[in-house]
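User: Structure please.
Assistant: Input sequence and predicted structure:
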Amino acid sequence: MADVVQYRLERMIPELDDLEKRGLFSKPEIREIVKKRRDFEYRLKRPHPIKEDYLRYIEYEKQLEALRKLRKKEIVRRLKENNRKWPFSLCDKTSIGRIQYIYGKLVSKYKGDLNLWFQYAEYCREQESRHTRQVLGEALSFHPNVPGLWIYAAAWEFEHNLNASAARALMLSGIRACPKSEILWIEYFRMELTFVNKLRARKIALGLDKISSLHEEEDDKTWREENSDLFMPLNGEKLDDEGTVENENNELETNADVIAIRELGYKMAYAILNKAIDAIPSSLRFRQLFVEMLDSLEVEKATILEDEICRTMLNDFSNDECCWDWLARRHLTKLQRGKQIGKEKAVAGLNKTIQVYEDALKSVPSAKMYGYYAKFLQDLIDLDKSESVDGLHFIRKFVSNIEEVMTNLLKLYERAACSGCSNEDLAEQHVSFLLKVGDVDAARKLATKFCTGEFSKVVKLWALRMSLEIKSAMMKSETMSKADLHYLFELFKKTLMGMPVSDARDLWDMAMEFFSSQRDYFDRILDMLGQVISVGSGGREGATLACTALDWVLQNRGVQCAREMYNRLEDPMQLVQFIGVQERHSRIPQLLLRHFSHCRLELLVFLDPL
């Protein structure tokens, strides 16, 4: 082991001599470098070196290289002042090679660590090393089922190595290895469309085409400066100062040639789209991602591609409510592409959206579809919500007749009820919307109809009805009459006695809060509570509700009343046992508060006087 380490150190002598000769490091610093490298080399030659040894060695070499570059920069600055240049140095390349060598040893020992492969490839890419392709090839040979690795390799070939053919070959290989990977298909589609954009920019650089209508408000020079990354020189070409392509072979590229290549790119994109749909036919989100990706690119035929994707969505997901909702809202989100949106376009987009929803109800007449349609109209009415809803924040200002939208929403709720497609959520929304517009009486009647009909066991509708009944009674006079109190009590009693405690917890809380100032009715509520609550049937919800009632009595009527109520429970000690208290001990209040922190109970409520 010592011989191998010594051999490795001796091979560093030319580099170390060069560092000293160039004035980058002093002799004491070089001795320290040798000492550190010797320690790291011995660590790597141990029988069982660990990953952290390699990573610390790499980090040390990176910091050393950063210091060398910093000192070199200062020396180069002084040389320029004297009209001298920095000659090529051996140390300019050895440190990079050493770090790559350590990375190579690391990944060969930990082949299964994908993160190390990415670190290795990223370092080679940052250093613009020709070794990058080899590293990525080795990584793919060990991890062929990782889509992100195929995408990374193709992106490097396409963006840094400017080799579209190699990038396409990598994407195709990745798809063969991972045919069900959505992100791989999406990125392959994006790459082909980006390549088409580069061909379009190339055509402009050759002077064969003017800027498209997407940039008609900008001149050629400004657009070239802002989109310089799209100009991809090929086959020895370069761009002059004006952005025109110069070919070293003086070959003339005709307009027909560029158009033919660009049309081929679009055909490739269509082929990818069709193959992707065939490979993953059951994912709606997959096709939505294709459309959303088109929004991020300025492609001439984006509308045609989007229409094709939407057509396949309607064919394959015609019974999916989410698909119809997305397609309807899509007509509004498309308007955001334009820089200026006129009232005519906004109103036309809104009408198209509503028409899609109407078509959806004919195709899929379900409660879920009615819910999506109602949610859209609610977002359109509510200005505050519309600010955060995608596609509605700009359309809201063009809707002049909000009353008409409200009328349509009410009609929609009625259509859902008449067609038998209403559910408890739609029913609650219908009642809440009537309450929102101020028609309390209509809301109360509708809630009564729902609670006495098909939604008689829905607690949230009962809670809504009871709140409306209370509000309606209080609107008659400042002081509630005895008849109204009796009516409300009987309604509460009928509801509470017919529902499990665990489901009707909110109704119990509402009843106790409402009758808290009416001692007679409150005592009757407590009697009802004592009848229906027991630990065996009420469970944790029942015990919590009992603690809430006891806490209220304790705070408002004193200890004696609280003790009397506690004794009225069917089996009072079961309440204590439920929360883990087995003995009557002074720690009982703390244990109770630990389980029911909202209750402020005292020991005397649960224990007989000592």
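The CA atoms of residues 440 and 471 lie 8 Å apart.
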